[in-house]
Design goal:
The chain is an all-alpha fold. The chain is built from 14 helices and no strands. It has one domain: ABC transporter involved in vitamin B12 uptake, BtuC, CATH 1.10.3470. α2 packs parallel to α4 and α10 packs parallel to α13.
Length: about 300
Amino acid sequence: MDQLAPLIAASINAGTPLLLAAIGLLINERAGVLNLGAEGMMLVAAIAGFAVGYSTKSPLLGFMAGAVCGMLMATLFSWLALVLATNQVATGLALSIFGTGLSAFIGQRFVGLALPSQSTGIPGLNTIPFVGPAFFTQHWMAYVALLLCAAIAWFLYRTRAGLILRAVGESPESAHALGYSVRGIRFLALLFGGACCGLAGAYLSLVYTPMWVEGLVSGRGWIALALTAFATWRPARVLLGSLLFGGVTILQFYLQGIGVTIPSQILSMLPYVATIVVLALISRNPDWIRLNMPASLGKPFRPGSS
Protein backbone atom coordinates (compact mmCIF):
# COMPACT_ATOMS: atom_id res chain seq x y z
CA MET A 1 0.00 0.00 0.00
CA ASP A 2 2.92 2.35 0.68
CA GLN A 3 4.07 1.88 -2.92
CA LEU A 4 0.58 2.02 -4.44
CA ALA A 5 -0.31 5.54 -3.20
CA PRO A 6 2.65 7.28 -4.93
CA LEU A 7 1.91 5.24 -8.08
CA ILE A 8 -1.70 6.47 -8.14
CA ALA A 9 -0.60 10.06 -7.49
CA ALA A 10 1.97 9.90 -10.28
CA SER A 11 -0.62 8.45 -12.66
CA ILE A 12 -2.99 11.35 -11.95
CA ASN A 13 -0.13 13.80 -12.49
CA ALA A 14 0.81 12.19 -15.81
CA GLY A 15 -2.82 11.95 -16.92
CA THR A 16 -3.73 15.58 -16.20
CA PRO A 17 -2.28 17.09 -19.42
CA LEU A 18 -3.92 14.30 -21.42
CA LEU A 19 -7.25 15.02 -19.73
CA LEU A 20 -7.02 18.77 -20.38
CA ALA A 21 -6.12 18.35 -24.05
CA ALA A 22 -8.62 15.55 -24.69
CA ILE A 23 -11.50 17.52 -23.15
CA GLY A 24 -10.76 20.42 -25.47
CA LEU A 25 -10.49 18.15 -28.50
CA LEU A 26 -13.72 16.43 -27.52
CA ILE A 27 -15.56 19.76 -27.69
CA ASN A 28 -13.97 20.43 -31.10
CA GLU A 29 -15.09 17.09 -32.44
CA ARG A 30 -18.55 17.30 -30.90
CA ALA A 31 -18.92 20.46 -32.99
CA GLY A 32 -17.83 18.53 -36.07
CA VAL A 33 -14.26 19.85 -36.36
CA LEU A 34 -11.26 17.53 -36.49
CA ASN A 35 -8.16 19.36 -35.28
CA LEU A 36 -5.00 17.29 -35.62
CA GLY A 37 -2.84 20.23 -34.55
CA ALA A 38 -2.98 19.45 -30.82
CA GLU A 39 0.70 18.49 -30.66
CA GLY A 40 1.84 21.80 -32.14
CA MET A 41 -0.59 23.81 -30.05
CA MET A 42 0.62 22.15 -26.86
CA LEU A 43 4.27 22.74 -27.77
CA VAL A 44 3.78 26.46 -28.44
CA ALA A 45 1.77 26.80 -25.23
CA ALA A 46 4.41 24.87 -23.30
CA ILE A 47 7.23 27.22 -24.27
CA ALA A 48 5.03 30.31 -23.83
CA GLY A 49 3.90 29.15 -20.39
CA PHE A 50 7.44 28.31 -19.33
CA ALA A 51 8.88 31.58 -20.66
CA VAL A 52 6.28 33.69 -18.87
CA GLY A 53 6.37 31.58 -15.70
CA TYR A 54 10.17 31.69 -15.57
CA SER A 55 10.35 35.43 -16.29
CA THR A 56 7.61 36.51 -13.88
CA LYS A 57 8.04 33.75 -11.24
CA SER A 58 4.26 33.32 -11.46
CA PRO A 59 2.94 29.90 -12.58
CA LEU A 60 -0.56 31.38 -12.84
CA LEU A 61 0.60 33.88 -15.45
CA GLY A 62 2.37 31.00 -17.19
CA PHE A 63 -0.88 29.05 -17.42
CA MET A 64 -2.67 32.14 -18.72
CA ALA A 65 0.00 32.63 -21.38
CA GLY A 66 -0.29 28.98 -22.40
CA ALA A 67 -4.07 29.24 -22.74
CA VAL A 68 -3.81 32.44 -24.80
CA CYS A 69 -1.23 30.92 -27.15
CA GLY A 70 -3.39 27.83 -27.56
CA MET A 71 -6.33 30.06 -28.50
CA LEU A 72 -4.18 31.99 -31.00
CA MET A 73 -3.13 28.75 -32.67
CA ALA A 74 -6.78 27.65 -32.71
CA THR A 75 -7.73 30.98 -34.31
CA LEU A 76 -5.24 30.33 -37.11
CA PHE A 77 -6.72 26.87 -37.62
CA SER A 78 -10.24 28.36 -37.57
CA TRP A 79 -9.43 30.87 -40.29
CA LEU A 80 -8.03 28.14 -42.53
CA ALA A 81 -10.56 25.39 -41.81
CA LEU A 82 -13.75 27.38 -41.27
CA VAL A 83 -13.36 30.50 -43.41
CA LEU A 84 -11.26 29.13 -46.28
CA ALA A 85 -12.79 25.63 -45.87
CA THR A 86 -9.43 23.88 -46.27
CA ASN A 87 -9.07 20.17 -45.62
CA GLN A 88 -9.16 19.79 -41.84
CA VAL A 89 -6.77 16.84 -41.73
CA ALA A 90 -4.10 18.56 -43.81
CA THR A 91 -4.57 21.86 -41.96
CA GLY A 92 -4.24 20.18 -38.56
CA LEU A 93 -1.08 18.35 -39.60
CA ALA A 94 0.39 21.59 -40.93
CA LEU A 95 -0.47 23.34 -37.65
CA SER A 96 1.26 20.59 -35.69
CA ILE A 97 4.42 20.83 -37.81
CA PHE A 98 4.36 24.63 -37.58
CA GLY A 99 3.98 24.54 -33.80
CA THR A 100 6.84 22.07 -33.46
CA GLY A 101 9.23 24.31 -35.37
CA LEU A 102 8.03 27.55 -33.76
CA SER A 103 8.38 26.20 -30.23
CA ALA A 104 11.89 24.93 -30.95
CA PHE A 105 12.90 28.34 -32.32
CA ILE A 106 11.40 30.36 -29.46
CA GLY A 107 12.68 27.99 -26.79
CA GLN A 108 16.37 28.04 -27.73
CA ARG A 109 17.40 30.39 -24.94
CA PHE A 110 15.28 28.57 -22.34
CA VAL A 111 16.81 25.12 -22.84
CA GLY A 112 18.26 23.78 -19.60
CA LEU A 113 16.56 26.32 -17.35
CA ALA A 114 14.34 25.04 -14.55
CA LEU A 115 11.55 26.44 -12.40
CA PRO A 116 11.57 26.29 -8.60
CA SER A 117 9.38 23.65 -7.00
CA GLN A 118 5.77 24.62 -6.28
CA SER A 119 3.66 23.76 -3.27
CA THR A 120 1.10 21.08 -4.07
CA GLY A 121 -1.67 19.21 -2.31
CA ILE A 122 -4.68 20.15 -0.22
CA PRO A 123 -3.65 20.97 3.36
CA GLY A 124 -5.34 18.71 5.88
CA LEU A 125 -6.52 16.18 3.32
CA ASN A 126 -3.05 15.23 2.11
CA THR A 127 -2.23 13.73 5.52
CA ILE A 128 -5.04 11.15 5.44
CA PRO A 129 -3.45 7.68 5.38
CA PHE A 130 -3.21 6.28 1.82
CA VAL A 131 -6.05 8.45 0.43
CA GLY A 132 -4.15 11.69 1.12
CA PRO A 133 -0.87 10.75 -0.61
CA ALA A 134 -2.76 9.09 -3.47
CA PHE A 135 -5.35 11.75 -4.32
CA PHE A 136 -4.72 15.00 -2.44
CA THR A 137 -1.08 15.79 -3.21
CA GLN A 138 -1.68 17.12 -6.73
CA HIS A 139 -1.08 20.55 -8.21
CA TRP A 140 -4.20 22.71 -8.21
CA MET A 141 -4.46 22.46 -12.00
CA ALA A 142 -5.11 18.72 -11.69
CA TYR A 143 -8.26 19.46 -9.67
CA VAL A 144 -9.24 22.16 -12.17
CA ALA A 145 -9.01 19.51 -14.90
CA LEU A 146 -11.30 17.16 -12.96
CA LEU A 147 -13.84 19.93 -12.35
CA LEU A 148 -13.64 20.93 -16.01
CA CYS A 149 -14.38 17.36 -17.08
CA ALA A 150 -17.48 17.28 -14.87
CA ALA A 151 -18.56 20.71 -16.13
CA ILE A 152 -18.24 19.62 -19.76
CA ALA A 153 -20.34 16.51 -19.09
CA TRP A 154 -23.02 18.72 -17.55
CA PHE A 155 -22.77 21.24 -20.40
CA LEU A 156 -23.14 18.65 -23.17
CA TYR A 157 -26.05 16.70 -21.73
CA ARG A 158 -27.88 19.12 -19.42
CA THR A 159 -27.88 22.49 -21.19
CA ARG A 160 -29.48 23.93 -24.30
CA ALA A 161 -26.12 25.26 -25.49
CA GLY A 162 -24.66 21.75 -25.26
CA LEU A 163 -27.57 20.38 -27.28
CA ILE A 164 -26.96 23.01 -29.95
CA LEU A 165 -23.25 22.17 -30.06
CA ARG A 166 -24.02 18.47 -30.54
CA ALA A 167 -26.61 19.34 -33.20
CA VAL A 168 -23.99 21.32 -35.13
CA GLY A 169 -21.70 18.31 -35.00
CA GLU A 170 -24.40 15.95 -36.19
CA SER A 171 -26.11 18.04 -38.88
CA PRO A 172 -24.73 21.53 -39.52
CA GLU A 173 -27.17 22.03 -42.41
CA SER A 174 -30.16 21.51 -40.10
CA ALA A 175 -28.66 23.77 -37.41
CA HIS A 176 -28.05 26.46 -40.04
CA ALA A 177 -31.63 26.14 -41.29
CA LEU A 178 -32.85 26.74 -37.73
CA GLY A 179 -30.92 30.01 -37.60
CA TYR A 180 -27.78 28.95 -35.69
CA SER A 181 -24.37 30.21 -36.80
CA VAL A 182 -22.50 27.00 -37.51
CA ARG A 183 -19.20 28.76 -38.14
CA GLY A 184 -19.60 30.89 -35.02
CA ILE A 185 -20.33 27.88 -32.81
CA ARG A 186 -17.45 25.92 -34.30
CA PHE A 187 -15.13 28.89 -33.83
CA LEU A 188 -16.03 29.13 -30.14
CA ALA A 189 -15.55 25.37 -29.79
CA LEU A 190 -12.11 25.66 -31.37
CA LEU A 191 -11.17 28.54 -29.08
CA PHE A 192 -12.14 26.44 -26.06
CA GLY A 193 -10.19 23.48 -27.42
CA GLY A 194 -7.17 25.69 -28.01
CA ALA A 195 -7.32 27.04 -24.45
CA CYS A 196 -7.50 23.49 -23.05
CA CYS A 197 -4.56 22.33 -25.19
CA GLY A 198 -2.72 25.45 -24.07
CA LEU A 199 -3.30 24.62 -20.41
CA ALA A 200 -2.14 21.06 -21.08
CA GLY A 201 1.09 22.26 -22.69
CA ALA A 202 1.70 24.77 -19.90
CA TYR A 203 1.12 22.04 -17.31
CA LEU A 204 3.88 19.96 -18.87
CA SER A 205 6.47 22.74 -18.76
CA LEU A 206 5.39 24.37 -15.49
CA VAL A 207 4.45 21.38 -13.33
CA TYR A 208 5.14 17.98 -14.81
CA THR A 209 8.75 18.57 -15.87
CA PRO A 210 9.19 21.60 -14.89
CA MET A 211 11.63 22.81 -17.50
CA TRP A 212 11.82 23.34 -21.21
CA VAL A 213 13.41 20.99 -23.74
CA GLU A 214 12.69 20.77 -27.42
CA GLY A 215 9.85 18.35 -28.16
CA LEU A 216 8.70 18.41 -24.54
CA VAL A 217 5.16 17.22 -25.37
CA SER A 218 6.55 13.94 -26.76
CA GLY A 219 3.47 12.82 -28.65
CA ARG A 220 0.92 13.53 -25.93
CA GLY A 221 -1.11 15.61 -28.36
CA TRP A 222 -1.56 12.54 -30.55
CA ILE A 223 -2.43 10.40 -27.55
CA ALA A 224 -5.08 12.97 -26.55
CA LEU A 225 -6.56 12.71 -30.04
CA ALA A 226 -6.68 8.93 -29.71
CA LEU A 227 -8.32 9.32 -26.30
CA THR A 228 -11.37 11.04 -27.79
CA ALA A 229 -12.03 8.05 -30.04
CA PHE A 230 -11.22 5.62 -27.23
CA ALA A 231 -13.76 7.45 -25.06
CA THR A 232 -16.38 7.49 -27.86
CA TRP A 233 -16.63 11.26 -27.38
CA ARG A 234 -17.88 11.06 -23.77
CA PRO A 235 -16.25 13.13 -20.98
CA ALA A 236 -16.44 10.43 -18.28
CA ARG A 237 -14.62 7.97 -20.52
CA VAL A 238 -12.06 10.63 -21.39
CA LEU A 239 -11.31 10.90 -17.67
CA LEU A 240 -10.95 7.13 -17.35
CA GLY A 241 -8.76 6.94 -20.44
CA SER A 242 -6.47 9.75 -19.34
CA LEU A 243 -5.85 8.04 -16.00
CA LEU A 244 -5.24 4.75 -17.80
CA PHE A 245 -2.71 6.27 -20.19
CA GLY A 246 -1.15 8.24 -17.34
CA GLY A 247 -0.70 4.98 -15.46
CA VAL A 248 0.93 3.36 -18.48
CA THR A 249 3.32 6.31 -18.74
CA ILE A 250 4.30 6.00 -15.08
CA LEU A 251 4.58 2.23 -15.30
CA GLN A 252 7.86 2.52 -17.21
CA PHE A 253 9.47 4.45 -14.33
CA TYR A 254 7.98 2.11 -11.74
CA LEU A 255 9.35 -0.98 -13.49
CA GLN A 256 12.79 0.64 -13.74
CA GLY A 257 12.61 1.55 -10.05
CA ILE A 258 11.95 -2.03 -8.93
CA GLY A 259 14.82 -3.32 -11.06
CA VAL A 260 13.00 -4.94 -13.99
CA THR A 261 15.68 -5.73 -16.56
CA ILE A 262 13.96 -4.39 -19.67
CA PRO A 263 15.72 -1.88 -21.95
CA SER A 264 14.58 1.67 -21.18
CA GLN A 265 13.78 2.26 -24.86
CA ILE A 266 11.17 -0.50 -24.77
CA LEU A 267 9.66 0.87 -21.57
CA SER A 268 9.46 4.34 -23.12
CA MET A 269 7.42 2.84 -25.95
CA LEU A 270 4.66 1.63 -23.59
CA PRO A 271 2.28 4.65 -23.85
CA TYR A 272 2.45 4.64 -27.64
CA VAL A 273 2.09 0.88 -27.90
CA ALA A 274 -0.97 1.14 -25.65
CA THR A 275 -2.38 3.83 -27.98
CA ILE A 276 -1.92 1.62 -31.04
CA VAL A 277 -3.46 -1.38 -29.29
CA VAL A 278 -6.50 0.64 -28.16
CA LEU A 279 -7.05 2.09 -31.64
CA ALA A 280 -6.70 -1.35 -33.20
CA LEU A 281 -9.29 -2.80 -30.81
CA ILE A 282 -11.70 0.08 -31.45
CA SER A 283 -11.30 -0.25 -35.22
CA ARG A 284 -12.50 -3.84 -35.11
CA ASN A 285 -16.06 -2.57 -34.73
CA PRO A 286 -16.60 0.27 -37.25
CA ASP A 287 -20.38 0.23 -36.72
CA TRP A 288 -19.88 1.06 -33.03
CA ILE A 289 -17.63 4.00 -33.94
CA ARG A 290 -20.10 5.20 -36.56
CA LEU A 291 -22.92 5.22 -34.02
CA ASN A 292 -20.97 7.34 -31.53
CA MET A 293 -18.93 9.61 -33.81
CA PRO A 294 -20.39 13.04 -34.71
CA ALA A 295 -21.81 12.63 -38.21
CA SER A 296 -20.18 15.75 -39.67
CA LEU A 297 -16.75 15.25 -38.10
CA GLY A 298 -14.02 16.54 -40.41
CA LYS A 299 -16.46 17.77 -43.07
CA PRO A 300 -16.29 21.46 -44.03
CA PHE A 301 -19.49 23.49 -43.94
CA ARG A 302 -20.27 26.15 -46.51
CA PRO A 303 -23.46 28.15 -45.84
CA GLY A 304 -25.80 28.01 -48.79
CA SER A 305 -23.87 25.22 -50.55
CA SER A 306 -26.43 22.50 -49.83
